[in-house]
Amino acid sequence: MVVGDFPIETDTLVIGAGPGGYVAAIRAAQLGQKVTIVEKANMGGVCLNVGCIPSKALISAAHRYDHALHSEDMGVSAENVKVDFSKVQAWKSSVVNKLTGGVEGLLKGNKVNIVRGEAYFADENSIRVMDENSAQTYTFKNAIIATGSTPIELPAFKYSKRVLNSTGALNLQEMPKSMVVIGGGYIGTELGGAYANFGVKVTILEGMDEILATFEKQMSSLVKKNLKKKGVDIVTKAMAKGVEETENGVVVTYEAKGETHTVEADYVLVTVGRRPNTDELGLEQIGVKTSERGLIEIDKQCRTSVKNIFAIGDIVEGPPLAHKASYEGKIAAEAISGHPAEIDYLAIPAVVFSEPELASVGYTEKEAKDAGIEVKASKFPFAANGRALSLNSTDGFMKLITTKEDGVVIGAQIAGAGASDMISELSLAIEAGMTAEDIAMTIHAHPTLGEITMETAEVAIGMPIHIVK
């Protein structure tokens, strides 16, 4: 039964409580607004519940298992190493629950009103929120849309018990013996690598020339080499054509080099991208402009074509990254509060939790040259770093992109252990307009992976200590 309602007023209404929405709601509340946030599923959105966090938990557990099996070089060996996959899943869920509970606590602590249900715009100043039992109208001065994205489903690979998206692959209750991964982007590579570390026979089918095509080849080739060492079959320039489900698994058909092939596995994981969740909000009836791909058009303050409605995260142009969504959420909240905040994508780091980890920020050497900027590219190997040697993780390098004229840092790429943590210093360097000399003259603790940043900067200024020029 639908209960009649009187409109509830709020200053700012946020739709979606993922890493964009909940951050926007908290920042808006901190700036003195009365805020309501609407979420139809769990606090934290895809990232906390079925994305970034559970995938990294699974990757970490897989690393522990792999290290237990393969640490003979360090004089450490173990017998009868076992995986209790139900316990792995229970631990992963406990990590997720702590974080989602923490998000709810943060929202309540900042006096944000939390509403459960699906939102639909009635007009440019009101929405209807519906759940199974009732509907309620909320009126607002400003709204922030942060509804995120959903995995793309291929027509020939309809999701089922054995045809999985990333959510399904993260929630398997038993360890598969084999898995086919369609798509060698960051999700496919991360999850494929995690299951390979657990001993699963993994086949990756990628339509492009290389896996992780958004990264430089010298970076992705290190990951490719490592995956092959773990027994992963990687087929590039492959077109997945269809799947036949059997009682105990799947048979996937694909084309490569003009020939048709089949591969059998327990499951097939489809990771070919994500689509924005913008089609069931009523945007068209209030005049919010979207692109052909369903992305919402915004200005420098995340404002849509309707001046009091803002949009952030996966539903706007740019990479579908949680940290980008959080950044945009703060900009939108500040713009609504009258601050002169604007988005500036000078340094959005991109990270893949592969082996080795990959991270990139700012310009690559090619991008800089294509933009007509004269640059110098300086490299330093992990193999010349004491901490990397003591971790037995010497694969990889750091590359610093600096302007030829004055040595300003405009880009950096890292392939190696700890790359995901190391990239933040370089993001700060780019944001602050620092030079290679600024980094080289900063004392870095020894022995740490962080010294690689200093050493690469020393290469850039022509005075390296730990490699011969």
UniProtKB/TrEMBL annotation:
Keywords: Disulfide bond, FAD, Flavoprotein, NAD, Oxidoreductase, Redox-active center
Pfam families with a match to the protein in the record: Pyr_redox_2, Pyr_redox_dim
Domain FAD/NAD(P)-binding: 11-329
GO molecular function: dihydrolipoyl dehydrogenase (NADH) activity
Domain Pyridine nucleotide-disulphide oxidoreductase dimerisation positions: 348-455
Entry EC number(s): 1.8.1.4
Catalytic activity field: N(6)-[(R)-dihydrolipoyl]-L-lysyl-[protein] + NAD(+) = N(6)-[(R)-lipoyl]-L-lysyl-[protein] + NADH + H(+)
Coiled coil ranges: none
TM spans (from-to): none
Enzyme class: oxidoreductase
Annotated cofactor note: Binds 1 FAD per subunit.
Cofactor(s) for this UniProt protein: FAD
InterPro entries on file: Class-I_Pyr_Nuc-Dis_Oxidored, FAD/NAD-bd_sf, FAD/NAD-binding_dom, FAD/NAD-linked_Rdtase_dimer_sf, Lipoamide_DH, Pyr_nuc-diS_OxRdtase, Pyr_nucl-diS_OxRdtase_dimer, Pyr_OxRdtase_I_AS
Disulfide bond found in the keyword field: yes
Family membership noted in the UniProt record: Belongs to the class-I pyridine nucleotide-disulfide oxidoreductase family.
Misc: The active site is a redox-active disulfide bond.
Name of the protein described by the UniProt record: Dihydrolipoyl dehydrogenase
Organism of derivation: Peribacillus deserti
